[in-house]
Each structure stands twice: as C-alpha cells, then as structure tokens.
Amino acid sequence: MSQNILVVDDEESILTLLKFNLEKAGFDVTTAMDGKKAMELGLEDRYDLIVLDLMLPEMDGLEVCKELRQNKIQTPILMLTAKDDEFDKVLGLELGADDYLTKPFSPREVVARVRAILRRSQAVTQTKGVEKKSTVVRFGDVEIFPDNYEVYLGGVPLELTPKEFELLVYLTTYRGRVLTRDQLLNAVWNYEFVGDTRIVDVHISHLREKIEPNTKKPIYIKTIRGLGYKLETPNKDE
Q1: pLDDT band at 136 (very low <50, low <70, confident <90, very high)
Q2: Global model pTM greater than 0.70
Q3: What is the pLDDT of residues 1-49, one digit of tens each?
Q4: Which domain holds residue 109?
Q5: Are residues 97 and 175 in the same domain?
Q6: What's the CA angle centered on 89, arms 87 and 90, to 5 degrees?
Q7: What's the pLDDT at 100?
Q8: Which residues, 6 or more positions from 117, have their beta carbon under 8 angstroms from its beta carbon?
C-alpha cells in the first residue's frame, strides 16, 4: 500500500519537481501552495508525512507546524527552508518538525530523507499497543522498553518523538561515556548534517524537559563543556 505525502510549497516549479520524484519513488502525493490549505489538509490526519516549506503565503511553515502539533497531529514533518539561518532551523525543530532541508537540494536527497523519516515513524507505529517485552533499561526514575518504543518516568508514560527516543536509547547504551555532538549526530541521524550539531542540542533540550526534575540542574543528561554529553545514573541509584 502506497504511503501518502503532503507537499507544501508556494513555488510551482519546486512543487512539480518534488511531486514527480516522490511519485516516481512510489509515494502518493497531494500538494498545496499556501499555509492555510496546508493546515486544512494536515488536520485531516491522513498523511504519512508532510513536506512543508518555511516561507508560505497565508500562514508560514512554522505557524502551520505549531498549529498541527497543538491539535495533536503527530504526522512527521520535513521542513524546507531557503534561508541559511540556524535560528529558523532550530525554531522549526522546537515547534515539532522532525527534520529540515535547506534549499537548493537534490530530488534524490529529498527522497532519501523522506524514506529515513518514514522508517523511524513506522517503527514506532508498529510497536504501539504491543505487550511489553522483558527487555527494560532503567536509570533513576526512568524506564525504557526498547522493544516497544516506550519510556516511563515514575511509572507515567512519556510522549517522545521517534528521534528523541533513538537519542535517549543511544545515550543509555553508552551510559557513563562522554559522547561528542558529532558522534551523536552520526550515530542517531543516518545521514550527514554537515556539521549542523545544533540539532543535537535541540533534541537534548527536549529530552531534559521530559525526564529531568530540574532542567537547569540535570541529573541524568550532563553537559561536558567543550566535548558533548554524558548520561549518568544519580548517585542514589548506583
């Protein structure tokens, strides 16, 4: 069964190019040219992924992303931006985008990125509702069930994005070891971001907000100045 992708861009040439290459790769594609239409279609919650341009008429991509997430639409979002502006990229991720690409990009790169995001999303969907396996990773008040893509804090389930989950599992795999941003980028993201390690910082910040009692004084994910991050178990649990 084909996967449905919503592509939103106000440049007709880019829209046509993306639609052609994604359909050639086997996807069903719906298009929109403004943010208002993107919101209308996105709220139908029938797409497997949304490719969303940042600069749009009616509503910009950041606002669309924010509104969809506030309406509990968890469809993965790949954001497109013509700006070489780190702020826009980081803000997009903070508002709920799963990934971003900076224009100009090659059609092959877009298809590869779309497939990577969908693989992660499918892995989460396929494990939801499955009875818990015996495999469990614990540190402090956090419990991770890798086989089920589930995380609990003090027995309460946490809502993590697929990428947040992968990052957390990787940190626990190398518990006690300092991992550089480049190491995390290369291990957790299965393609090169050409030094855009800020994406790691954004996801670390999201994880801290969800698992740390006090984000200003983290007890689990420690920043090692000048190097990277390290996941530790609080002394009381050692």
Answers
A1: confident
A2: no
A3: 789 999 999 999 999 999 999 999 999 999 999 999 999 999 998 999 9
A4: 4-127
A5: no
A6: 65
A7: 82
A8: 49, 76, 78, 98, 99
How far apart (Å, rounded) are the C-alpha atoms in residues 194 and 186?
A: 10
Token reading at 154: 């003090």
What is the full DSSP assignment across 60-119? Answer: -HHHHHHHHHHTT----EEEEES---HHHHHHHHHTT-SEEEESS--HHHHHHHHHHHHH
The H-or-E segment that residue 157 falls in is strand 156-157
61 plus 18 within the same structural domain: yes
The reply to whether 49 and 92 lie within a common domain is yes
Cα-Cα-Cα-Cα dihedral sign, residues 8, 12, 14, 19: positive
Q: What are 56's two structure tokens? A: 């749009």
Tell me what the pLDDT averaged over the chain comes to: 85
| Residue 85 sits in the same domain as residue 185 | no
